[in-house]
Amino acid sequence: MSVKLPPRLLELLSLTVFACCGCQSMSHKQQQKLIDARRHSGLGFQKIHNGSWEDAEKLFTQALDKSENDERAHWGLAEAHWNRDKRALAVEHMEQAVRLSAGDPKMVQRVGQMYLDMGRLEEAKTHSLWALESERDSAEAWALYGDCLRAAAGVTDPDHPALQPALAAYHRALALQPDYPKVQQTAAEIYLQQKRYDRVLATLDRLHDTHGVDAASPRVDFLRGIALSQEGRTDDAKVSFRRAIAKDGSVPEPLLELAALELEDGQVERARSALEQASEVAPELFKDGVLIAELQTAKQQTAKQQTAKQQTAKQRIAIESAGKDERLRH
């Protein structure tokens, strides 16, 4: 027995089937566009890996032309814009990547780092805490949180209330990832601010033990030199400063510290050599002539000391000679 459906119901069913077919067709098209977008994104990341930032930017733009819903394309385009100093655009696309990824902690952390580099500390701190809410065992997120706190404290105030929490955040990062050179170096910077020179050396010595002396950054050698100098280990400090200079001679601070130690030891010509190199690197430091005047004064003092030593030696020889003659007469 056949059942006849009312004409109105047939009409509704027809519309429903048509709509469903249309949705499926539209969904398929969207999926294909997203697939094409992600293929372009993959090529874009290959260009980033090769350092071809302009080509990468074009590929990620093409990916977004295919589909605006590819979070990886937004992320890649953000990195390309950032590298090409288009920071506002970079943050805009990175925020879009965060939204499309439903708050992927890695992407949240990355946009937080961008905000930090732009000096937007509150936004950076907010994103670092957001990343930690999602991933408490992320050493990178703890490091970012520490960087935000340290930036708020400034690099010159050893008693700022945010400095100790920043150090605690770095300790959490190192507990999760002991081999973390960037964090180890930053922790050493804080110890130096606090004049905890033994902790500076312990932290950086561990970094040296893990990666080797040659692989450490020039900044690590400079920080060790300062701590060694403060501990009274002058010769070791000189070695560290010279190593920093050999790795990167474009930074004046190690040269100036080395010159100061050489002056203290009366090694005027060595001090002059270091100062001359520093003057080539940073001539603005020598405009007032203070350092040159100090060197000249030190040279004069050294000359006087050498003259005094020579006179003393002559007097000693004369006295010894007179005593010898007196003994011969007797």
Please outline what is shown here.
By secondary structure, this protein is mainly α. 79% of the residues lie in helices and 0% in strands. It has 15 helices and no strands.
Largest sheet: none
Envelope shape? elongated
Structural class: mainly alpha
Overall mean pLDDT: 82
Number of helices: 15
Oligomeric state of the chains in view: single chain
Residue fraction in strands: under 5%
Q: What is the helical fraction, as a range of percent? A: over 70%
The residue ranges in which pLDDT falls below 50 over 5 or more consecutive positions are 1-5, 9-26
What is the rounded distance between the termini?
Answer: 158 Å
In sequence order, what are the helices and strands, one letter per element? HHHHHHHHHHHHHHH
Distinctive features:
330 residues; disordered N terminus; mainly alpha; single chain; 15 helices
Description:
79% of the residues lie in helices and 0% in strands. The chain has 330 residues and is mainly alpha-helical. Helix 14 packs antiparallel against helix 15.
Which secondary structure elements does this structure contain, and how are they paired or packed?
Layout: H1 7-49, H2 53-66, H3 71-83, H4 87-100, H5 105-117, H6 121-134, H7 139-153, H8 163-176, H9 181-193, H10 197-211, H11 218-230, H12 234-247, H13 252-264, H14 268-281, H15 290-329
Helix pairs in contact: 1-2, 1-3, 2-3, 3-4, 4-5, 5-6, 5-7, 6-7, 7-8, 8-9, 9-10, 9-11, 10-11, 11-12, 11-13, 12-13, 13-14, 14-15
